[in-house]
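User: Here's a protein and a ligand (adenosine monophosphate). What would the complex look like?
Assistant: Let me lay out the input and then the predicted complex.
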Amino acid sequence: MTSFRTLDSADVAGKRALVRVDLNVPMEKGKVADATRIERVLPTIREIADKGGKVILLAHFGRPKGVDPKESLKPVAVELERRLHKPVAFAEDCVGEKAAAAVAALQSGHVLLLENTRFHPEEEKNDPTFAKALAANGDLYVNDAFSAAHRAHASTEGVARLLPSFAGRTMQAELEALGKGLDKPKKPVVAIVGGAKVSTKLDLLGNLVEKVDALVIGGGMANTFLHAQGLNIGKSLCEKDLAATARDIMQKAEKAGCAIILPVDAIVAWHFEANAPHQTFGVDAIPKDGMILDVGPLSTERIRRSLEDSSTLVWNGPLGAFELYPFDAGTAETARHAARLTKEKKLISVAGGGDTVAALNQAKVADDFTYVSTAGGAFLEWMEGKPLPGVEALKAE
Ligand code: AMP
């Protein structure tokens, strides 16, 4: 990632700042059920308002097909106002006369939220005329929504090409943290990739073996690799048709000098449920009727040593069926090791993805990691090494 423009170089006083934020919050009975995403964009909004800018917020909400009152951002404006301790005006459209009138009435230091950008199908098509209509309401553009940056939409990419564009503070923090993870990491770098299936993470594995020094493979996807090596994995989750692909990944890793660390032992149960009776077996002795639900203690120890030998960790995907106690043990213990090494300043730890965030929260160590990304799709695309259109558009020429 090359350098990108930040709010440090933006002159916002008296200017109309179009700020793309992620306000796609979970709702229950018309009220915001989890305000994490709102909290994350407050610093950027406050900074621009405090510097005398006019803050005009752009955001999507849900997946509406055209205008749909159920997907209105209006209730989000109420919660935003409460948390910002400042009035938040609302316009019933993000372009056209209603938006223009609300923007014209906005004073310096004040905040306006425009209605759901996805009420217009042109948003997701990155339609140039629609992007121009959005840009008409701003003198400059700030993107603070990393989680939407993997999509080339009008409000994330098109408009950024039409106005002077800057990264907001949350976007900046995310990009700086990710830069430390893979783009310019302190070596050696170890990656942990777990989760259910190889098929959903092929691009990710392919990119990582080229970039990291060691790759720990755990979770259900490790079973496919064990099977590909000719081992019997009983009734474990496995994508047998991907055995050749798994072998290709291992060959690619060998060529690139990346050590692949697979489980050497496993916790096996006979039912996929919490507290199911279980036993530890070496991976060469998995019972025919058993299911691997977690990495075993020898594997966890091996992973711990690989963390100790590394300066940077990038992690996506749990090492076992972490939702089912006690099959969270390998993931939780590894998470605690990583957290301890991070606190001791021996490791830079970057993790992300929905289940990974849940697993780190469950192990109560998410706050001890260097950075935990809640961005989901955008985080995975970054791990896959793909350029993110919303980020590319912010790069300094
Ligand atoms: P993903 O969304 O690909 O990161 O996969 C996460 C899911 O993988 C979680 O729901 C885990 O329960 C599941 N998982 C991890 N290890 C195993 C395993 N050994 N067997 C079955 N499911 C697993």
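Summary: The two ends are 13 Å apart (CA to CA).
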